[in-house]
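INFO batch 0412 | record 1 of 1 | parsing
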Amino acid sequence: MATPTHALVHRYAPGTGPQEGTAELDAEMKIWAQIDSDLRSSGQLVEAWALNSATAALGTAADDAGSQVVFAVHAIAVESDAAAQQIAAGMPHLGYGSTTVHPLMR
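INFO prediction complete | emitting tokens
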């Protein structure tokens, strides 16, 4: 297993984006699954975690503005910050949320 070099921390504002039980959410979840599959196939995905949505909605981990909560984290192994930023830029929730890139210490 590769050593992770970066964490991608995914956030959204509760009440935004596709809602549970909709075709829009189903479509977005397929995109997330494809991203994970592609990253895994390329050897870049070390691990991915999704937070329980009920826990995330409680919001103990808010961003600086206090309006977004963490819902998922990807640990990736890439050659540079630019490569990590490029992966982050392709996340499907960016219209209603954010992804921050955090280099990891070894």
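INFO post-check: Residues 6-103 form a domain with the Alpha-Beta Plaits fold (CATH 3.30.70.1060).
INFO record closed
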